[in-house]
Amino acid sequence: MLCLIDQTVLPHEKKYIRCYTCNDVAQAIKDMIVRGAPAIGVSAAYGLVLGAAEYKSDDIEGFINHIEAAAETLRKTRPTAVNLFWAIQRMLKVVRDNKDKPVDDIKDMMLNEANNMAQEDIEINRRIGRWGQELIKDGDVILTHCNAGALATVGYGTALGVIRAAHEAGKNISVFADETRPYLQGARLTAWELMEDGIPVTLITDNMAGYFMKNGTITAVIVGADRIAANGDVANKIGTYSLAVLAKENDIPFYVAAPVSTLDLSLESGQHIPIEERDEREVTHIGGIRVAPYGVKVANPAFDVTPHIYVTAIITELGVVYPPYCENLKKLIKK
Asked: For position 122, which CATH number holds?
């Protein structure tokens, strides 16, 4: 069984969803009960563990076919976050590399690999935090978008991990969290996490960001990422691109915090990153109440791509990467 916090009902209710099958996990990812690129990846790994447990025969060929089918189910849940595909491939490698062993032994290896991935994620996020907090100055007011905290990872967070590390280092910082329409991850999740940690936070609507940048309130922007192309283009929650443009116009550093597993160096640029289109009800309704006229045409891309020219630096667990990203991201992964 995999137990997940239901992020769709936070902050008003802390509810847990129990997943007993691979399909349960796939549905939880699709419905955004669990969300955030690293959390999706590790959840998918455990989904394959559950899928393996469903297989009752000792026929190895049948087992591999069963796991491949489960992996395909998980792949179809959310197309943009590369961590999902990275985690699935890592789990499939365990299966394929040990196909000469008994099925029960492979099941144990899969569980061990998923546990390792979960523990690694926490350690990776803390290293991201340590590297990133060095970029944060005492007195900074940081704008963040969507939720890239403990809820989006196994623990600690990427963008919020940097903020947490700066706070833990004794720096006098505060955060502006924009609401992040249409799913309100900033309002529901980021603000809640920061308040739980005692980090000063101010909630604003998405369209207030430019005002606070222009008047000098915001001194840095930190966001997470769902996929980063070889040239440093960044796919993240819809609205990120707008903030990056505003930050550049107002001479404010724009940082992206993400693990190396979020890099997709197979893509030359962000124009090749698939963008998930979600249900129109997320736009037409707020809290289950319809706010738009019936029959109106709706577009709901879940992500946008920020060109690398707007990104000041990318913070990873291996260090901080600066332009030119085409060269320096390749050097990073060779470390």
From this structure: 1.20.120.420
Q: What is the pLDDT of residues 119-172, one digit of tens each?
A: 999 999 999 999 999 999 999 999 999 999 999 999 999 999 999 999 999 999
- Report the C-alpha gap between 80 and 37 in whole angstroms: 9
Q: Is residue 238 within 8 Å of residue 303, measured between CB atoms? A: yes
Alpha carbon 204 to its chain's center: 21
Q: Are 311 and 324 in contact (CB under 8 A)?
A: no
pLDDT at 287: 87
Question: What six digits make up the tokens of 13?
Answer: 């209710």
Bridge partners (DSSP) of residue 142 are: 175, 220
The residues that are catalytic are 226
Does residue 222 sit in the same domain as residue 305? Answer: yes
The two structure tokens encoding residue 42: 């590790």
Is residue 303 domain-shared with residue 159, that is, in the same domain?
yes
* Alpha-carbon span 146 to 158, nearest angstrom: 12
Chain segment 113-125, per-residue pLDDT in tens: 999 999 999 999 9
242-294 per-position pLDDT tens digit: 999 999 999 999 999 999 999 999 999 999 999 999 999 999 999 899 999 99
- C-alpha to C-alpha distance for 279 and 274, rounded to whole angstroms: 16
How far apart, in whole angstroms, are the C-alpha atoms of residue 35 and residue 31? 9
- At 147, the amino acid letter reads N
Record the pTM. Answer: 0.93
Residue 46 belongs to domain spanning:
2-126
Question: Among the three residues 95, 126, 157, which one is the final residue of a domain in this structure?
Answer: 126
